[in-house]
Amino acid sequence: MLKTRLIPCIITKGDLVVQSFGFNRYLPIGDVRTAIEFFVNWDVDEIVVMDIDASITGQEPNVELVEWAAKACFVPLVVGGGIKTIGHIQRLLKAGADKVCINSIVRDKISFVTEASNMFGDQCITVSVDVVKENGEYKAFDYRDSKSFGSDLAEHLKEIEQAGAGEILLNSVDRDGSREGYDLELLKRFSSLVNIPVIALGGVGRFEHLADAVLVGGCHAVAAANIFQHMEHSTIAAKAQMLSSGLDVRLISEVKYENFALDFLGRPF
Prior knowledge:
By secondary structure, this protein is an alpha/beta fold.
């Protein structure tokens, strides 16, 4: 059985790291290079760097940043934002990215997933799907227009799988920045509809929320952004909480996770 992955997401607007709240408010945090260097020195399984402005402003992916990050980053690097062509993916992978995360191009051209996975392998292709709940129904959300679009979410996810995606990053717009925990109803209902890994994102406020996405939501990996933007919220604390919840996680030998006690916020002491 595959181990549960812990994946910090670095959300950026250009080179500036931000905390996102409901996809409409953004708190500036600092430089993206500093954030990458921070996570490299902690116990994570992958790092996602997502530029949420690139597709809206028409910017191309930041290949220069990836070239720098590849030299400093010793865990798999996933890059998203502004990817519109096969050439973009080729340049990112050549620069040192291990995977790409695509979003808006999938809604515009589902065949792009097939073309990319056929050329680079499905293990390189992560598709991010933003989801909003409207009138009791889950719908895919287009962040460019800040509104849902008509496709049935279940069919949309199955179409992404059939097109050749390697995994799906399922992101709750409603829980974004809420600290209320993942939308477990969303995860449980839709992760079981596809046979490729589903990564949970959106809403983590306590480290115990991470295990919920796997044990209740049925996901294969957990991702979070805002909670990791503070020094006291280390990814080692997150792994300690995941281990105490019974998840099979990858551990580094230098850290004695089993010796951690956890306080009411899920922090080790």
